[in-house]
Amino acid sequence: MQEKFQELETRLREIGDLNAIGSVLGWDQSTQMPPGGAPARARQMSTLRRIAHQKATDPVLGQLLEELRSYEESLPYDSDEAGLIRVARRNYERSTKVPADFVAHFSRHRAESFHTWTKARPANDFAAVKPYLEKTLDLRRQQANFFPGYEHIADPLIDFSDQGMTVATLRELFGALREQLVPMVQAITTTQPPADDVCLHQHFPPEQQRALGREVAARLGYDFQRGREDLAPHPFTTSFSIGDVRITTRVDPEHFGGCFFATMHESGHAMYQQGINPAYEGTPLARGTSSGVHESQSRLWENLVGRSRGFWNFFYPRMQETFSTQLGSVPLETFYRAINKVQPGLIRVYADEMTYNLHIIIRFDLELAMLEGRLAIADLPEAWRERYRSDLGIAPPDDCDGVMQDMHWYSGNIGGAFQGYTLGNILSAQFYEAAVAAHPEIPAQLSQGEFGLLFGWLVKNVYWHGRKFTPAELVKRVTGKPLHIDPYIRYLRAKYGELYAL
Ligand code: ZN
Asked: Does the annotation count 207 as an active-site position?
């Protein structure tokens, strides 16, 4: 059995290596590659994906997993070996249900659709992307139908990225959240003018902004010996191994915040990847357990730490030193209010903590309506405007900053792409509350610029396990409870209640 298990590990690492090579190509494409490299790169990636898919669906792998069934049952559930067999089986069963032709066809379609969107968005040309979206919708339905037995057609698509979550669970969760958020946003925005954030709209030299971001990332716990930071138009984190996890950021020379918080956000994702048990290297356990849990780590560092009063008590003097002409005479209180300004806006990625989830819930509802056949692609831009009007009180003047603002639907992901953001926000508070319950001195340490206790707790309880446990198992183990919105609501009420005297 030991021999068979080793053979399984060898095969899984080979697949892991091919996927990691694909990540190197993808990182290079988004950060360094000259435009002339695009056609060959697309071919190289598709060749690699095809080989990886062949290996991931090799019947010999399926046979091996069958032979290891009794061995798995003899092991404790939380052992690394049992975890690896479990996750490998789930991957194998999912990969083999989707025909290779479909994978190749969908992958080409994704690339074409994305390419069309990059040109159509600045031209405000929804008509150009409409046929691609229609085809995506059709292909996503086909994809869901390779996994029959679902209750809602989006369930299998959601399960890819947030295992165990269903439309029914999410509708209830998001409904309860929305019920709390809408009156809070209204109370803030109708009783007083928005916070003055003019101090953030000044010239901040890009190199200084990036240097400050890197400094903070390193202080939090991101290891630059096992990572690096580059520029990318849409910031992301990518992992080639536990020893090489890279972040990207973007910078607006006329605004402070975008670069800094993007760097903190991506560092949160990256620390998760760097903190995984090194024994999992190269195997399917060496990644986050779900998109929601991954996002909880980026949000925890970006918002619960990075936009907290305690953090800026410590860091603002350092900030004023770097940007003395811009911020030297701006009081901490003004700055703190500026970075926590609540104002309904059109763009998800610029949204504040309070309104952010409303953007997500709109997208989630619209994609379910599309998949259910209740909403035709032709009617999508108007449906989008209507929901923005009713939920946020504003409507986009064009599709560029409306329905075309996010790449998700245009890169082939209608269904399953958005719920992770809100699950992440909810979980960020649930994890943080558990950390503070275990170590009540964490908040005081944060305001002294000491992050080691929180970081160490997260490594031990969350990062280390990689994908060994399902999201539900991990949340229960770490916080003692299933996922729930109360800690997040408590966090928002406490923070914004104080800020806006609610
Ligand atoms: Zn993220």
From this structure: no
